[in-house]
């Protein structure tokens, strides 16, 4: 392969890229699978085979080949062979359970030979579909094991209900199997494979030497008969005799080491140096060197894969040559027959890259003996006209007696002018002829069989309405469709941009032309570039082609720019990755192209202008959608985000955009992909008409109304919208933020906070703060809501002091602006409670949380989002204070409320479960904590994804619980997952990544003895847990140096308030059965507590300034004074 790639001087090829079929048996079968199905490099294949042999044959499983009952017994461990094969498959990125034939069409067909144990018939296990019935469908591993299951060495392999051993009995040399299989595929009728083969390569395992017949009956049975059954020499002789002419002609080659490998057995992997030496000596021999040079030259000239109908193509070409020869010899025919007409306005494109399309087109147009009409459609610039030009020239080469006429079909006038030229070339144009009489004239002439073969090519037949014209003298319409000639010797070919037009012209034979694949695009770029040194950088070339979306017109324009400006590929990629306007300017460059009309504009950016106009005329809603989508990200645009319209009208509009290949629906049908270059061209078009800013503002207004509220229940929807809204906000050129922009940016920032994308959320909020700081009063509700959001972001970013300062300032302003009873004040109190909790100011945090809860219950009810959030904060405060009884009671209420309000699978319910997990851990209930934490992790991962920060946090909870139970192995495995996921999400030097790997090291390293005792003995953990919990309890001074014992606070005032609110719900709440009699009976005290909230007794020693938040404003005095 090294010599072949050096000869080709292009992209390195692998054997699977070069050969159409690879077949093998036993060792050859393994190699065939590795090279063909796993698509490995030769060096990688050799190394993998070495590892496999060493693992499998390093030790015998049984010394005797038979057991006591006389049955054959395998001498080597079949499990090792399976493990080795699975390892090879896994290293190639596939699963051991992947099928050998998974239904995908691959460039190289692979089969291996195995012997069915019940019938002793050779069975071919294929990687491709076959016409044979009852063909097994093995996995890759099963096929490799079956072809390797040599009797005495390994156990038979079960595939389905049948057992298989290796194919040595009957196909030890599989060359005849390969020959027969190739005949079945490429020449099933004639069975004449020799005329079709370009190169047939047979590789043997080496000559084993001449051995006589053993007289000893046991040796005769065990050795001589086996050798006679599997001896491949006779197969080689028959094969070489049949293919002698092809071998002499340099189309068939056989390589097999002749000397030096006698006596080397399959299991003797340790004799690898001897095998390599003998092989090297064989290949360096003078006779083999010439054979190798011929083989390399033959394979290096191979251009593409062989079509299944290759035999039919060869026979058809031979028939045409024979007909041409007879035609040339017939002088009478030359004298009598008028020479065929040729009316094609373009030269042949020498840079044309052959695609599978041409074979399909010619199969349709020139099959049978009747007229065929065919249409191809695709995106503008995809190469339809170039296909038509090449079709014209190939038709002239293959059918010299065929007239070819090219009709530009952009407009009715251009069609009429072209028909006039056709009439003149056929010499049937009368002296006086009305302008529209030429259509029936051409139709009548070409419909006559005596006028020979012809091909009509209608290029750019995009607008169906152009095919009808109303007569100036009457109201009669002329339909060109009625004047298309009909003859068994004629064919008509259309190129168009829409599937509707293609179906109008050719109802059945319609073919979509996609963008090129990477191989075709690479070949095209190589042909176009003048500086051939640029093609050596294959990786950079692939990057360039990917950015050009493999669009032929874009590739031609890029090559023209590179050639004219003597730039390189890296510089051109940098231009494409630059500012959007620079990219548009680049695609707007004019360039020379002999394969396009002189009147047409060549740049990629201008290619679709005609289609834009047609869409706007046919369906204004489709044009509106296209302009709207140009303002969004081009990938996965939700249909629900488009401007509202009637369902039927929306379906039609999207259908037209799909028909022009501007958009493609994604699987499922609820999202669309807009072609990236079409999006750039559309933006350029809107800028040129000064409509760009209006469309961006319109898109912002539409999306601000459609964007859902930032709640967890809407997360799936707003995650689909987010990439497009963020892209839209980037396009907003004006610094002025309209009301719609403010609403949209505010909603998006809240969603980003929910999604832990704090930097992006902070950027949006700072923009709003800067803009509204200039145009609004500092005390306005708008600026306060922005500052409040910023405080939340600062708190989540680990900046609690900044968050406290900003949230306190917001609270002061709210108290002045709207008073203490406003719901915004309660929301800010909740935020401040969370901030002070992070600062470990637990008494302050508790007081703020209870005050917020009372405000929310009064204004919004206990089931509101903010109420539940604040209750969750209060539960965490109770846990941190060591008040586990209060925390457990309130945590269960919180869980039931969340379950009822948001659903059992919501992240909010999972959050309340995590609070209960923390309580269970502190109570020593590790088994319950583990079960509940796993349940919570499943919910969070399902909704937020594996990489989300919240998911990683829950995984860390579970790691701690596992470690507390002494399950270090499970904790280490989960820690490694967290570390790897963190490394993918953050920079390698990020503290989160370092901490994650430190955690892995902790659980995998040997711990001190006392730590192991604490981890594994539950009774040893209990005192430590009690001491840690007691530290959270306050010490109350009695007298002098006397203190009361440390006990948790038992103030359940807030719980009773929440329970009372719960009882007021319709139907109550499952799980909350009773409320203490004191709260139910003492309505006066309950009402009083909702209006006046005093500090709990255990906060009496806290200094009063802690409750004053700057400027001498006491929240206690403002709210409860």
From TrEMBL:
Single GO term (MF): ADP binding
Q: Where is the active site?
A: 26 (nucleophile), 166 (proton acceptor)
* Domain of life of the source: Eukaryota
Which keywords are on file for this protein? Hydrolase, Lipid degradation, Lipid metabolism
Where in this chain does the record put each PNPLA domain? 1-179
Motif GXSXG per UniProt: ranges: 24-28
- Output the InterPro entries linked to this UniProt entry: Acyl_Trfase/lysoPLipase (IPR016035), NB-ARC (IPR002182), NLR-like (IPR053137), P-loop_NTPase (IPR027417), PNPLA_dom (IPR002641), TPR-like_helical_dom_sf (IPR011990)
Give one GO biological process term: glycerolipid metabolic process
Give the transmembrane region(s): none
Motif (DGA/G) positions are: 166-168
- The yes or no answer to whether the keyword Lipoprotein is present is no
Q: Which PANTHER family match?
A: AAA+ ATPASE DOMAIN-CONTAINING PROTEIN-RELATED, ATP/GTP-BINDING PROTEIN-RELATED
Q: What is this protein called?
A: PNPLA domain-containing protein
Q: What is the lineage of its organism?
A: Eukaryota, Fungi, Dikarya, Ascomycota, Pezizomycotina
């Amino acid at each position: 392969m090294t010599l072949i790639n050096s000869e080709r001087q292009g992209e390195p090829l692998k054997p699977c890229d070069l050969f159409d079929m690879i077949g093998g048996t036993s060792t050859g079968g393994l190699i065939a699978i590795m090279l063909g199905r796993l698509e490995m490099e030769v060096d990688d294949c050799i190394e993998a085979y070495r590892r496999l042999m060493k693992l499998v044959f390093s030790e015998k499983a049984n010394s005797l080949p038979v057991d006591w009952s006389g049955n054959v017994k395998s001498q080597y461990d079949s499990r090792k062979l399976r493990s080795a094969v699975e390892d090879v498959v896994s290293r190639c990125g596939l699963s051991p359970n992947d099928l050998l034939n998974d239904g995908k069409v691959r460039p190289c067909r692979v089969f291996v030979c195995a012997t069915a144990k019940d019938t002793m018939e050779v069975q071919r296990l294929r990687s491709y579909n076959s016409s044979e019935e009852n063909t097994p469908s093995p996995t890759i591993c099963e096929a490799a094991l079956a072809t390797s299951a040599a009797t005495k060495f390994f156990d038979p392999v079960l595939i389905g209900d049948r057992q298989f051993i290796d194919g040595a009995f009957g196909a030890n040399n599989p060359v005849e199997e390969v020959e027969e299989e190739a005949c079945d595929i490429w020449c099933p009728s004639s069975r004449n494979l020799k005329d079709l083969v370009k190169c047939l390569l047979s590789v043997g395992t080496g000559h084993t030497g001449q051995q006589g017949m053993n007289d000893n009956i046991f040796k005769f049975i065990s050795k001589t008969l086996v050798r006679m059954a599997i001896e491949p020499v006779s197969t080689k002789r028959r094969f070489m005799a049949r293919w002698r002419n092809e071998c002499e002609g340099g189309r068939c080659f056989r390589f097999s080491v002749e000397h030096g490998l006698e006596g080397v057995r399959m299991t003797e992997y340790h004799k690898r140096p001897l095998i390599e030496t003998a092989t090297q000596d064989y290949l360096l021999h003078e006779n083999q060197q010439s054979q190798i040079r011929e083989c390399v030259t033959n394979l290096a000239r191979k251009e593409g894969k062989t079509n299944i109908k290759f035999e039919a193509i060869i026979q058809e070409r031979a028939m045409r040559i024979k007909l041409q020869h007879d035609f040339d010899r017939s002088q009478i025919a030359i004298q009598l027959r008028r020479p065929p007409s040729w009316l094609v306005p373009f030269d042949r494109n020498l840079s044309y890259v052959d695609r599978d399309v041409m074979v399909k087109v010619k199969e349709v147009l020139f099959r049978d003996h009747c007229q065929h009409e065919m249409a191809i459609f695709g995106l503008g610039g995809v190469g339809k006209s170039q296909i038509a030009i090449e079709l014209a020239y190939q038709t002239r080469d293959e059918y010299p007696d065929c007239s070819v006429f090219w009709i530009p079909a952009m407009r009715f006038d251009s069609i009429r002018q072209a028909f006039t030229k056709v009439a003149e070339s056929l010499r049937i144009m009368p002296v006086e002829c009305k302008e529209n009489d030429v259509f029936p004239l051409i139709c009548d002439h070409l419909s006559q069989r005596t006028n020979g073969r012809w091909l009509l090519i209608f290029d750019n037949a995009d607008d169906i309405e152009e095919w009808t014209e109303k007569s100036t003298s009457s109201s009669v319409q002329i339909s060109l469709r009625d004047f298309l000639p009909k003859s068994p010797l004629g064919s008509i070919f259309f190129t168009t941009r829409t599937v509707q037009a293609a179906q109008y012209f050719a109802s059945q034979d319609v073919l979509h032309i996609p963008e090129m694949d990477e191989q075709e695009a690479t070949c095209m770029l190589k042909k176009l570039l003048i500086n051939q040194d640029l093609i050596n950088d294959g990786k950079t070339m692939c990057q360039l082609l990917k950015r050009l979306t493999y669009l032929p017109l874009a590739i031609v324009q890029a090559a023209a720019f590179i050639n004219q400006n003597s730039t390189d590929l890296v510089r051109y990629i940098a231009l494409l990755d630059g500012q959007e306007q620079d990219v548009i300017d680049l695609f707007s460059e004019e360039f020379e192209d002999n394969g396009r009309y002189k009147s047409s504009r060549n740049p990629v950016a201008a290619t679709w202008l005609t289609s834009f106009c047609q869409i706007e005329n046919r369906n204004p809603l489709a044009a509106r959608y296209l302009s709207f989508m140009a303002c969004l990200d081009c990938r996965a645009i939700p249909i629900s985000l488009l401007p509202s319209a009637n369902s039927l009208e929306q379906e039609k509009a999207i259908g037209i955009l799909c028909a022009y290949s501007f958009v493609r629906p994604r699987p499922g049908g609820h999202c669309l992909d807009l072609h990236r270059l079409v999006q750039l061209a559309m933006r350029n078009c809107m800028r040129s008409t000064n409509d760009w800013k209006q469309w961006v503002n319109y898109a912002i207004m539409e999306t601000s109304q459609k964007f859902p509220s930032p709640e967890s229940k809407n997360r799936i929807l707003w995650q689909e919208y987010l990439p497009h809204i963020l892209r839209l906000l980037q396009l907003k050129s004006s610094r002025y933020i309209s009301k719609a922009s403010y609403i949209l940016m505010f909603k998006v920032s809240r969603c980003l906070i929910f999604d832990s994308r704090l930097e992006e959320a902070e950027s949006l909020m700072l923009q709003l703060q800067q803009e509204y700081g200039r145009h609004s009063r500092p005390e306005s509700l708008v600026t306060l809501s922005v500052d409040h959001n910023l405080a939340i972001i600062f708190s989540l970013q680990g900046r609690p002091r900044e968050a406290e300062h900003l949230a306190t300032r917001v609270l002061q302003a709210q108290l002045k602006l709207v008073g203490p009873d406003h719901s915004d004040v309660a929301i800010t109190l909740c935020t401040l409670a969370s901030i002070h909790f992070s600062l470990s100011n637990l008494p302050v945090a508790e007081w703020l949380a209870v005050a917020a809860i009372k405000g929310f219950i009064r204004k919004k009810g206990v089931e509101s989002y903010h109420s539940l959030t604040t209750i969750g904060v209060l539960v965490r405060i109770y846990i941190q204070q060591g008040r586990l009884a209060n925390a457990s009671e309130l945590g269960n209420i919180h869980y039931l409320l969340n379950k009822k309000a948001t659903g059992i699978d919501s992240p909010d319910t999972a959050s309340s479960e995590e609070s209960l997990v923390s309580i269970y851990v502190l109570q020593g209930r590790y088994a319950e904590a583990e079960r509940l934490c796993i349940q919570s992790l499943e919910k969070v991962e399902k909704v937020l994804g594996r990489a989300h920060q919240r998911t990683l946090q829950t995984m860390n909870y579970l790691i701690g619980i596992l470690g507390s139970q002494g399950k270090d192995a499970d904790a280490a495995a989960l820690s490694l997952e967290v570390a790897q996921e963190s490394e993918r999400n953050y920079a390698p030097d990020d503290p989160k990544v370092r901490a994650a790997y430190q955690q892995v090291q902790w659980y995998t390293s040997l711990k001190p003895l006392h730590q192991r005792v604490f981890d594994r003995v539950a009774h040893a953990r209990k005192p430590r847990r009690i001491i840690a919990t007691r530290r959270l309890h306050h010490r109350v001074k009695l007298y002098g140096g006397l203190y009361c014992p440390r006990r948790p606070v038992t103030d359940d005032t807030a719980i009773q308030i929440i329970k009372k609110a719960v009882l007021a719900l319709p139907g109550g709440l499952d799980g909350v059965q009773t409320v203490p009699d004191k709260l139910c009976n003492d309505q006066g005290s309950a009402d009083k507590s909702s209006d006046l909230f005093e500090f709990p007794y255990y906060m009496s020693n806290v200094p009063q300034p802690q409750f004053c938040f700057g400027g001498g404003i006491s929240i206690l005095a403002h709210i409860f004074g």
